[in-house]
Amino acid sequence: MISKKPPSSSLRKGYTGTVLLFLLPWLFSLIVFWYGPILYTVILSLMKYRLIGGGYFIGFSNYTKIFQDKLFWTGLQNTFVFILMYVPANFALGLFTAYLLNMNIKFKGFWRAIIYVPAVLPVVAVLVLGKFMFYPNGLVNTLIELTGIKGPLWLANPNLIKPASVMLMIWQCGTAMVVYLGALQGVPKHLYEAAEIDGLSHSGQFFHITIPMISPTILFRMVIDVIFGLMIFVPGLILPEGNVPGGPGTSSRFYALHIYEKAFQRFNLGEASALATVLILLSMVITFFIMRMSNRYVHYEA
Amino acid sequence: MKKLSVILLTVVISLFYVSPVYSTGQGDAAKDGPVELSWWHLWGGSRTELIDALLEEYADRNPNVTFDVTFTPPNELMKKVIQAAGTGTLPDVVQIHSGWYTNLMPAETLENLSLYAERDGLNLESTLVDAERLRSYWEGSLYSLPNVNAGAQGLFFYNKDLMRQAGLDPIKDAPKNWAEFTEVSRILVDKLNTGKELDVIAWDPNQMAGQPSVIVFSYGAGYPTVSNDTKIALLDTPGVMKTAQAFDDYMENIYGSYGGYRGVMEWNSRVAGADTGAAQVQAFINGNQVFYVSGSWTIGQVKSGNPDMDFGILPVPGFEVQHGGTAKNGWSYAISKSSKHKDAAWDFLKFITLEAEGNGEFCIAQGRPSPIISVNKDSRFLTESGPEIWSNLVQSMNMDIVPEALDIHQDTLKPWLRDIPSRRIAGESIDSIMLDINDRYQDYLDDINR
Question: Above pLDDT 90, what percent of chain A?
Fold first, then answer.
């Protein structure tokens, strides 16, 4: 017979102690390597701090200065434009490929591998390769010129550098594809069978069954992609014609590139930390809003 | 007890005076016992062998000194050095660029070498080329010594074979001023290209080999791009703006029929293979580019890349008169303030910067001038370079000394200037681009000088 008596306080203490002991390595790394640096960044953002010579507290001056800097707003604007293009594109391509691969097609494993491989390549390698493709005489323009049209200067045109960045970044849609594929396979078959009996078309099934059923996954991917977009950095460093970080002009000067320049080219750690703190707050606010909005659009299975 | 204390104190003080801590450094490093010196330098590629030879030569003289050597490419060295300086982890001997003094705060991070030089009775004035000596000081104190002659940065390389091919006389028609240069360039582009696209260019004003051309030409014409105290950006001054405008006109006048900026950008992509300085050096070596602006370090590269090429060197063509200037900026070596082996480091530093057996051999083997005056009289230079090239080189090392934009342009100013073609194609005026770059440069200078 199992006793219904609650465990004694000494037993509970022992249990809590064991749990804490097992959690300790994780807690240690969380505090030392995550919360610690974040806290230190916030402290540095209130200081005039240079790598050489140390620093002293100056209140919120760094924040005043960064908000007055037009490059701060340029970086923010470029980053949001990138997010607006990247998030829907990565969603559409990831879901589309997952949807295709969820069907009964031949060599399914092979196609999955082909689509996933770019996702395991380093971003820098993908972008360097992509840069050659987007050169004035690169593969992309060579293909365009087959139609008799002169290809544009993708990497030298302020209006095309961001679309080019997005095109190369969604080459790595394999990660999203895998996540969506898992979600698609989790949609109960009987829902489609019932819909078919009711005469719902394939597109109707997609919009009324598939999308609502995988909406928690879409939400998850959206949060991840938006945060990824906020931190976007490498395309602005590698892609522009002439190896001009942030170029042409300031058209690919993303927010994170601005932080990088302040921290590692000017060694102005105070302002760089203020910029980083703003980015953390921004990520939190945007994530909060997405989660709030999700109540209306995300369907959680009961 | 008091007596015992006095005896102990005397013993301790005596030990202190005979210990290495109080070493005067008068003797060579070998006398100080086994020492391991850490050394960071930027000489990779073909220069690795020269570095090994230097170390061997030094080890023969100082068998008790060993080295922990780290190579770091030039474009990564600045970040690495400044981060190490900030964390007190600089090596004993470190390669720096004299343009980094502003960022490095030498008084806090580097050993003041003035006392060492004085102690050893060095006469730097009679030993070093003026520009190289002057760039070694920061706020009146010596914090580094020059490694290679860097002042001769504005050399105008030209391919004599291609000039002949275009029906020009490589001696008589070698351009001496901007008007002659544009005229010769027009003839070259017309004669050496027959198709719709450019195969051979005369010169790309936006090329970036070492220094950005607009800076080289500006200081060559006597227009500084930064104030003497390196606090004020001068890219918006009439002289520099005039240089940028002349470059802009050059692109239109010489390459207009090939699409101007776009034509040269496509040439970079198709013929040079990229838009980097390294790719354009190769294009010069391969005979796809007639003129090329670079420093003395390129001479050896061109010679080894194309031994049959007949090329010459000119000072950069000035606008009204041929003027030219010697830049006060370049690569040096310094000793870390936190070094535990300062005397041994000083001994090694002298070897790689001030001695013919060390620095001299390193420079001669590369065919590039040494900061040491006497080394540059070595007959091997003349034999290797030929009298014409060598006399122009020596001339370019000894012109008016001008402050040059800090070497931070490796990361900042240089890319902004390299962005000019894209921005011009996008429709911005050259004046507006230069004013914007000047603002960004000033913002940078304000940041690092705070």
Answer: 77
- Which amino acid, residue B211? Q
What is the CATH architecture assignment of A62-297?
Orthogonal Bundle (1.10)
The reported pLDDT for the residue numbered B367 is 79
Contact A267 B270 (CB under 8 A): no
Pick B42 or B385 by higher pLDDT.
B42
Q: What is the pLDDT of residue A281?
A: 96
- pLDDT (average), residues B41-58: 92
Ramachandran area for residue B315 (φ above 0: left; ψ -120 to 50: alpha; else beta):
beta
Instruction: List, by residue range, all CATH 1.10.3720.10 domains of chain A.
Output: 62-297
Return the pLDDT at B18: 42
Domain B155-327+397-449, what fold?
D-Maltodextrin-Binding Protein; domain 2 (3.40.190)
Given a contact cutoff of 8 angstroms between Cβ atoms, the answer to whether B406 and B442 are in contact is no
Q: How many Å apart are CA B319 and CA A232, to the nearest integer?
A: 44
Q: Which helix (H) or strand (E) holds B13?
A: helix B2-18
Residues of A in contact with B418 (CB under 8 A): 242-244
d(Cα B158, Cα B160) in Å, to the nearest integer? 6
Residue B376 has pLDDT above 90, yes or no: no
Find the radius of gyration of the CA atoms of chain B.
24
Interchain CB contact of A142 with B (< 8 Å): no
CA–CA dist A286, B64 (Å, integer): 62
**Cβ within 8 Å of residue A139, ≥6 positions away:** A132, A133
Q: Are A272 and A263 in contact (CB under 8 A)?
A: yes
Residue spans of the domains in chain B: they are: 28-150+329-385, 155-327+397-449
Torsion of CA B328, B331, B332, B334, to 10 degrees: 120
Distance CA B359, CA B357 (A): 6
In B, which residues are within 8 Å of A247 by CB distance?
415, 419, 422
Substitution target in B419, B420, B429, B435 with the highest count of A β-carbons within 10 Å is B419
DSSP A185-253: HTS-HHHHHHHHHTT--HHHHIIIIIHHHHHHHHHHHHHHHHHHHHT--HHHHHSSGGG-TT-STTTT-
Give the H or E element holding residue B293: strand B291-294
pLDDT digits (tens, 9 = 90+) for B233-274: 999 999 999 999 999 999 999 999 999 999 999 998 888 777
CA A254 to chain centre: 14
CATH architecture of B28-150+329-385: 3-Layer(aba) Sandwich (3.40)
Q: Is the pLDDT of residue A299 over 90?
A: no
Q: Determine the number of helices (DSSP H) and then strands (DSSP E) in chain A.
A: 15, 2
Nearest residue in A to B433, CA atom: A249
Q: Are strands B93-97 and A47-50 parallel, antiparallel or unpaired?
A: unpaired
